[in-house]
Every structure is written in C-alpha cells, then in structure tokens.
Amino acid sequence: MLFKSLAVSALAAAALAQDLTTLLANTTELSNLTTYLGLFPDLVGQLASLQNITLLAPNNDAFSRLLNSSAGAALVQNDTALIQALFTYHVLEGTYTNFTDTQFIPTLLQPPQFTNVTGGQVVQAVAGDNSTAFFSGLLNNASSTGSPLNYSGGVVHIIDDVLIIPQNVSETAIQANLSALAGALTSADLVETVDYLSDVTIFAPNNAAFEAIGSAFPNLTMDDLSSILQYHVIQGTVGYSTLLENGSVPTVQGNNVTITIVDGDVFVNSARVVVADVLVANGVVHVIDNVLNPENATATANPSEETGSPAFSGASSASSVPFTSGVATPTASAATESAPGATGATSSSTGAAMPINTGAIGAAALFGGAALVMNL
C-alpha cells in the first residue's frame, strides 16, 4: 500500500511539473489544436505563462469541424486579434478541477471590441452526473467528460466543440430568430444604443409575443416604440439566471419591472421567461413570451397559466409577425432551449467601444453564425 501511495504521488507530482506546452504535445486527443497553435508561438507563450487557469481545449474532432467549415477561413487569414479572442475565451479564470450546479465563470476574453462585460465575458458551466456542459454564444453546447489534465499553471478540460464568442445584441437577435425584436430596434433607431451598453440584462420578446399584440404597433410613434423597447433593458447588472431574485428592478426606460420566481419559473411582470441565459457581448438575454408595457407596469404573473399574460389591453394578433420586413434570416439551426438547470427554463455604465458584430466577418460557426430558433 505504501509503494502504491508513493507511485500515485509521484505521478501527480510529474503531472503538475509539466508545463502547458508539454501537456498539449503529449495529449494525442489535442494534436490538431497543438499543431494549429504551433503557428502562433507568441500566443502559445502567453497561454503557457498564465497561472491559476482552466483551459477548455477542443478535441481533434471539434477542431477538424472548425477548420473544415466556412469559419475556418477566419483562422487561415491569421487575424491575430480574432484568433487571440477565440482562445482567450476558452480560458477560465481560476483552477476548476470540477464544477458544481450552474456557474457563470469569467474568462480572459476582455478586449472591448469583443465584450462589454465587466470582468470579462463568461462561459456557463452546467454540471451533470458524468460530464459538464459549457454554454457559450447562442447557447452553443460543448461537453467535457473524464478527469481534467493537470499542469503547472492549472488544469485542462477536453471539450467536444469549439466555444462561440457571444455577439452583440442586434446580431444575436437575428441569429436567434428574434427577428421582430431585431426589426423593432431598427425602427426605433436603437440598434447602436443597445449594442453600445455594457453590463445589460435584456428581456427579449419572441416573435409570437410581437405577433400576439400586432394591432398595437401601427399607431405607435417612434418615441412610443423606443419607450417600450427600453423598458425591456436593465443596465448595470448582468442578471444571469442564478442571480435573479424576487423584486423590482429599474429599466433604461425609467419604470421598474417586477421579477417573480415561482417553483423555478421566472416571470417579468406578466411575461414568462421561456429561454434563459443567452450570452451576448455586453451581458445576457432572457427570452420572454410577451411584450412588456411600461404603461402597465403592475401586470402580474399568473403561474397557473402555461404562458404569460399580454400586457397590452385590447390589442389583437396580427396576420404576420411585425417589424420583420427586411430583417436578415438566420443562417442555420442550433439550440432551441436553455441550458439544463437554468432558472425558469425548459437570470451602470456605457462601454467606450461597441463589441464587434462578429456575424459580419463571415466566420459563421466560429462566432455564432448558427441560428437559435426561439419562436416558442
């Protein structure tokens, strides 16, 4: 028993003594990643010098899918800033040998052209019985199984997909099939305003919510529409699902919204959260099933109903989804619901620079070009 204990201790010490470069080179499952990183010695040096980190390393299959996709062109073009952003988004602050429940963990992705989240963009980690799921932009899901690999600067978890850098709000709305919201932001001239804000929580009505009260929109002035949309935005707090609590919160519009949590279901005034925790460049989006009305801030939740209650009295549905004319269509289909374990799911300052509209550079799969269908 003594010799066995000594042998285990020796192996552990050897693992901790190796640096990141050695670990990657000696891990067959990461050979594609290692080969590609070899083209960027400065980046490798930066990653290897970091301490107390957790690296989420895409396995060979994940990296092959990336390089063989249209997004691979962005890597081949050797855009150093973009490549560094991608890899730093795979680096978690802190050493996580395991994960518990649902966590939103800051990464080293901090440059303002990619994120306006104080402390760095996050990855959502959801612990399962035998694996951990990591959710990134557009709820893209990468999973890790098995034990982490230890090295002198921290640990490595091998994942089965490449993480997607969260995009700005307007591009996320398009790719998530929240086309009515995307069009409404354009009609109200709020696209840049919303994209420039930092540390936001946005309650985004799905297309069905806009369609259900379609008769209310034709007579609205731009100021009316702007007021309604700003009533869906909270600035200064990134309210991930794990942080949402019962109570009232002021919006950018000025009036408060009321958060109500009943048996794990989250309501905003009378609207129900149907998809939680869609990460965006400047915070988080929760999709709701009704449009909020700043003139009806006292609308209350009805947990006994499967859907929330409309906040626009007397409004009727439209024959088509409002505000969608001319809005770009999503490029593909991807996730359709929140991460398992997210609350309510089947959670002040302005940034100096607007996070990049990464969907515009042609790197679809890498930076969130897949669509997230949310007509729920």
TrEMBL record:
Q: Which Pfam families match?
A: Fasciclin
Native species: Phialophora macrospora
> Which keywords are on file for this protein?
Signal
Annotated FAS1 domain residues: 17-163, 165-292
Listed PROSITE patterns: FAS1 (PS50213)
Q: Specify the signal sequence span.
A: 1-17
Output compositional bias ranges, type Polar residues.
296-306
What is the protein name stated in its UniProt record? FAS1 domain-containing protein
Entry's PANTHER family?
A: FI19380P1, PERIOSTIN-RELATED
What residue intervals traverse the membrane? none
Q: SUPFAM superfamilies under this entry?
A: FAS1 domain
Choose any GO biological process term that the UniProt entry carries and state it.
macroautophagy
Name a GO CC annotation attached to this entry: fungal-type vacuole membrane
Q: Where is this region: Disordered?
A: 296-315
> Could you tell me which InterPro entries the record lists for this protein?
Adhesion/Biosynth-related, FAS1_dom_sf, FAS1_domain
